[in-house]
Amino acid sequence: MSYKVQINDVVRDATAEETAYFEAKKKKYEDNLFSKTLNDFRIKRNFKLEKTDWTSSSDLTMSAEMKEYRQKLRDATEGLDTVEKVQAYEFPDEVLK
Questions:
Q1: By three-state DSSP, how is residue 13 classified?
Q2: How far apart are CA 12 and CA 30, in angstroms?
Q3: Most buried of 10, 57, 90, 92 (most Cβ within 10 A)?
Q4: Helices in 7-95 by DSSP H: which ranges?
Q5: pTM higher than 0.90 for the full model?
Q6: 52 and 92 in contact (C-beta within 8 Å)?
């Protein structure tokens, strides 16, 4: 990618050093964006798991549907290695029993 630098109303091509700096800043932003997006995703997933924690009580028998739902939630982050994949993920339908 070609970068331009403007100093005192003069626009010029960025030097190799400036380009490296801009690329490093861009990479840091993208890396942080992925981490933030995945962290937000995990918060939503954990909330959904917490809503069903009561079903794992030792004096209850968890339904097969609930076991499958909770397993899907635990496995939700597998393969999510880009911001786009995280944003496109659709959580499974909630199971209430």
A1: strand
A2: 26
A3: 92
A4: 16-52, 64-74, 83-88
A5: no
A6: no
